[in-house]
Specification:
8 helices, TIM Barrel, single chain, alpha/beta, 229 residues, 17% strand
Length: 229
């Protein structure tokens, strides 16, 4: 796994040109395609489902990182695995049995992860670290793109990074630490310094392409900020 990964969120993409959009960000150097799934139940918004994942799968070679903001989660996990997802993360509050949901993701050939909202306690990680490939911290309250980064996420990132480092030092598997919400060129280095290695960027990539460099320019500036941290 590279030191840092950029995961453009298609929530901010032009859905009339979605195949073109995901091909463009892959060509510009994206490491993952982040896929936000909302059900108008767990969160107050309704977005996209497995059919869209299946439709974009042939357009990219990089992994599709599916973030499930749905309740209940187990049935939709299977649908996304069959649709071509590579990573599936979900919120512990949305599962009746977190361990079983994590096992279900892995049984269907995907990497598994938990998502913690800004006010979700870290104790949800206590007994499942050996089953995780990714931990995603929300730095905004989930439901809508374009929100501002919540500064208290930095302290939470440091705590989760310490947990991951202890787990790996004790012989555990590597776990990616992803952050989602309000990531921009001017704060990505600070977020990386707090411990994140994977960065979801929606409006920062799709909403504000560099006039001179398109998506290459935006992703290049994100990487330059990380390199200069």
């Amino acid at each position: 796994m590279p030191e840092f990964r950029i995961a453009p969120s298609i929530l901010s993409a032009d859905f009339a040109r979605l195949g073109e959009e995901v091909r463009a960000v892959e060509a510009a150097g994206a490491d993952l395609i982040h896929f936000d799934v909302m059900d108008n139940h767990y969160v107050p918004n309704l977005t996209i489902g497995p059919m869209i994942c299946e439709a974009i799968r042939p357009h990219v070679r990089i992994p599709i990182d599916v973030h499930l903001m749905v309740s209940p989660v187990d049935r939709i996990i299977v649908d996304f695995a069959k649709a071509g997802a590579n990573i599936v993360t979900f919120h512990p509050e949305a599962s009746d049995h977190v361990d079983r949901s994590l096992a279900l993701i892995r049984e269907h050939g995907c990497q598994a992860g938990l998502v913690l909202n800004p006010a979700t306690a870290l104790h949800h990680l206590d007994h499942v670290m050996d089953r995780l490939d990714m931990i995603l911290l929300m730095s905004v309250n989930p439901g809508f793109g374009g929100q501002k980064f919540i500064p208290s996420t930095l302290a939470k990132l440091r705590q989760v990074r310490e947990r991951i480092d202890r787990h790996v030092a004790a012989g555990g598997q590597p776990i990616a630490l992803e952050v989602d919400g309000g990531i921009k060129v001017d704060n990505i280095a600070e977020v990386a310094a707090a411990g994140a290695d994977t960065f979801v960027a929606g409006s920062a990539v799709f909403g504000a392409p560099d006039p001179g460099g398109g998506y290459h320019g935006v992703i290049g500036r994100l990487r330059a900020a990380l390199a200069g941290r």
